[in-house]
Amino acid sequence: MQMPSGVHALVRRTHEERVLRALQENGAMSRGEIARVVGLSRTTLSEITGSLLQRGAIVVVDTDASKREGSGRPAERLALDPASAQFMGVDFGHRRVNVVVADASHDIMASGSVRYDDTTPWQQRTDLALGLVERLTTEAGVHYGALQGIGIGVPGPYPAPEAAAWPRATSAGTALRPAPEGVDLAFAARFDAPVIVDNNTRLAALAEAISGADSIADLVYVRLSDGVGGGLVVGGQLVTGSSGLAGELGHVTVEPAGRPCRCGKRGCLETVASVPAILAACWEFGLPLENLDELAAAVTRSHPVAERVLREAAAAVGRVVGAATMTLNPSKVVIGGEIARLAPVVVEQVAATLAADLFPTASAGPVVEAARLSDDDGAIGALAAVFHSSPLLARYPETADVRAGSDARTTDTEGAAHVRP
């Protein structure tokens, strides 16, 4: 019996929406990959994609020839029309902001960064970030008329715990700056697009979890940079915790009588394994280093002081990660940040310390590896949050639609965040 025309049109539109959604979430895909994701027969999918191609909603971007095995004919890879939408990821670090802009097919259109002092007020940081976006407009010829969503990563706990508990003044007169208020509104007002905000290192963990061929269901991520942060993926979910503190491995105490930390405590992992802490330790042991370039040069020539400091810092990271591993039993531990990239000995020492801290029976411990992504990891994770491209985001915090000053939020019945078109 022939399906009534009205029902047929509804079913067809539903199929089209599923195909378009799969391409928005995953980027370029072959027809076979799309069929597996959306659950349509090859015949139905061919009809749907043929119509979408004819109407210009999707385009052929390339083939799978570079990764195809065997001698069969390469399959075309389809994607949303790259010009149909843009997405922006922003990663505010303690001393720099990275911006990445991608098109609808997930190709990076432009990226850049700008540095600032760690005492720079948030209003100035926001202005610098918006200025960077304008610079990218000039340098890369990117215009933002089709911007559909913005993901922003910020340092420190997010959402922030009660002010009475975080931040706290330190003896050095500084404090861990709270998550910024109004940065989402500033971007939303500038670009008239919905914004999602989260901890930048947690977003970097998301980027690492989905950067390979298969998503990692259980992962512990640590970033060694101007600060030390972490992110947890547990049971296929990106974990935030009850007050945004999940994954704050940098503020686990490793030396109770150690240096003051920006959070108000003493001897946190960040006071041992961050870039400033490692440079300071090298000075104390007679190797005066001013910056990462000089540290990299010392590592290249195998300077004993640099190796000692890095191994001791990595051992502290390994002990903290070991406790997290015994609690969470991840399949992978990823070490990111500038320190891990310039000194492979760090990842090596973390793995050795972790192996020593596990039970003797834990022969199948987690894989320990350096991060696959670079300084753009938090910004790319922010993009992933906006793309909603992974089951890791099934219970992601609500996405605020703050266009025109609105505080409306939109979630599905499972609590998943969506960026409204």
Give a description of the structure.
- This protein has 13 helices and 15 strands.
- It has helices at residues 5-26, 31-38, 42-55, 122-140, 183-191, 200-209, 270-273, 275-284, 292-300, 304-328, 338-342, 344-357, 377-387; strands at residues 29-30, 58-63, 76-80, 86-92, 96-103, 108-115, 147-154, 195-199, 219-224, 228-234, 237-238, 332-336, 367-370, 399-401, 408-410.
- The strands form four sheets. The chain has a five-stranded mixed β-sheet, sandwiched between helices.
- The protein is globular.
- The protein starts with a helix and ends in an 11-residue tail after the last strand.
Offer a concise description of the structure.
The protein has 3 domains: about 5-60 and about 75-80, Arc Repressor Mutant, subunit A, CATH 1.10.10.10; about 85-205 and about 375-410, 2-Layer Sandwich (Nucleotidyltransferase, domain 5); about 215-370, ATPase, nucleotide binding domain (Nucleotidyltransferase, domain 5). The chain has 13 helices and 15 strands.
What are the key terms here?
421 residues; Arc Repressor Mutant, subunit A; five-stranded mixed β-sheet; Nucleotidyltransferase, domain 5; 38% helix; 15 strands; alpha/beta; 13 helices
Runs in which pLDDT lies below 50 for 5 or more consecutive residues are 162-179, 389-421
| Distance between the amino and carboxyl termini | 37 Å
> Average pLDDT across residues?
79
Report the principal-axis shape.
globular
Strand content: 15-25%
